[in-house]
């Protein structure tokens, strides 16, 4: 539904990943080109995030220039940012309608910095409106803009044979090592498991895959 509103042909769909065991992963239609993880922002996670950032700043990492990454400046828009990250890094695989609002946004923002992309999204009515409509369509009451939301979405994508974690709250993409089209879902789920292991008491984790329809 959401992809259709943004002007993307239904060759790809978002499907729930019901579990991390091999037999449940085998139910996910292939190929998979992105995984979105919904997880709780807890103290443990925030501590890890700060340490990870310092470690990467000290050691450095390899991030291909073709990775499309944007910062998150709009509260509660992490689902939209996750979706843009998933689509933007697979735009060669997507079939966009001619008047697609997302296609135009990606073309306009391709040469921008991650910060400029965030600013552009703030002014880009077509996508923001879509995000708000779909939030209201769901079963749950859409949270108000000021409400403190402690759940967050990130996107995991394969760009040039490397698995990247894209999180608009972080200063840069995180390179999680090599992957391939065939092993991408399993590799992405391994990254999701690390999030879960850092917060073993937490149950609020949910993964969805962008799969071929």
UniProtKB/TrEMBL annotation:
Q: What is its main location?
A: cytoplasm
Keywords per UniProt:
Cytoplasm, Hydrolase, Phosphoprotein, Protease, Thiol protease, Ubl conjugation pathway
What are the TM regions of this chain, as residue ranges? Answer: none
A GO molecular function term, named singly, is: cysteine-type deubiquitinase activity
The segment(s) forming the UCH catalytic domain are 1-212
Question: Gene3D superfamilies, alphabetically?
Answer: Peptidase C12, ubiquitin carboxyl-terminal hydrolase
Q: Which residues form the active site?
A: 78 (nucleophile), 152 (proton donor)
Domain of life, per UniProt, equals Eukaryota
Q: Which GO terms describe its biological process?
A: protein deubiquitination; ubiquitin-dependent protein catabolic process
The subunit field of the Swiss-Prot or TrEMBL record says: Preferentially binds diubiquitin; the interaction does not hydrolyze diubiquitin but, in vitro, inhibits the hydrolyzing activity on other substrates.
User: Which family, according to UniProt?
Assistant: Belongs to the peptidase C12 family.
Descriptive protein name: Ubiquitin carboxyl-terminal hydrolase
